[in-house]
């Protein structure tokens, strides 16, 4: 493996569209936050202490049991350019927070990019597993397996009463953050999304954009995740998320049917216009691109558009981000140059069968 492979290939396994309920659920992510007992937490550690954490975790990752799961590549953030870090964020392989830790952060990536083990992010360890479609239990099983193996080699900061200790109080306890990325165009078009979000927040869940906390819900993509990590078991947290997401899937499917029954011509016009604009536009900003890609994806799922796979659109949602556009161009681009290149890439991908 090489760093170039992770940067140049826009499609990670979680974008394959091959998972359950993939017409609505884009991906499932399970993340565990852990810290080492005998080291200062990342917010307080010096560069030398951070280096010691990277070395200790690297040795634990080198055990045979973990190698049997997958080949891993350790990448130190300080060796990456700002553009390379941005691309890894756009692929959801590292967090924006880790991307800023240029001096002392690292990430260990599995060959298929489904597993990302971040070191010296907000916590010493962030074990992340990303699966396509609705596979939150499968993501949990893999993250838990890796966590158990690492705990055999590392001494975690753990309190019998409070559970796993973390830098942010909202992660104390299980340290688990389970999230599902959903494509919900029908709920947005019909004006139902705010009611759904309000109901979600009342059952201990939160709604964020595609890049997590503080990000915008572009392209009708929403991340739903747990807020509570203390006082519940990991299984309870995942069961709650699973149940709520199943209800949202049912609502989205029902409102898609309603749109077909009550406003089919308008919906076909919306989808057709977006497909036509994406196929011929010479300039396209990221916000418009995501919205029109969302329309086209809905058209594919409702069989209004044939001959274009949803996998191609998953790829475009990453390929048209600023980091990828500039990496592909081989140089820094102005916003207008990015908009021109974005439109070109979309045209080429939509005509490629």
TrEMBL record:
Activity regulation field: Appears to be allosterically activated by the binding of pArg-containing polypeptides to the pArg-binding pocket localized in the C-terminal domain of McsB.
Cited function: Catalyzes the specific phosphorylation of arginine residues in a large number of proteins. Is part of the bacterial stress response system. Protein arginine phosphorylation has a physiologically important role and is involved in the regulation of many critical cellular processes, such as protein homeostasis, motility, competence, and stringent and stress responses, by regulating gene expression and protein activity.
MF GO annotations: ATP binding; creatine kinase activity; protein arginine kinase activity
Any matching Pfam family: ATP-gua_Ptrans
Record domain Phosphagen kinase C-terminal: where: 24-255
Family listed: Belongs to the ATP:guanido phosphotransferase family.
Motif (RDXXRA motif of the pArg binding pocket involved in allosteric regulation): 338-343
Protein name: Protein-arginine kinase
Binding site for ATP: 27-31, 92, 126, 177-181, 208-213
Catalytically driven reaction(s): L-arginyl-[protein] + ATP = N(omega)-phospho-L-arginyl-[protein] + ADP + H(+)
GO cellular component: extracellular space
GO biological process: phosphocreatine biosynthetic process
NCBIfam families per record: PRK01059.1-4 (NF002194), PRK01059.1-5 (NF002195)
UniProt-listed Enzyme Commission number(s): 2.7.14.1
Alphabetical UniProt keywords: Allosteric enzyme, ATP-binding, Kinase, Nucleotide-binding, Transferase
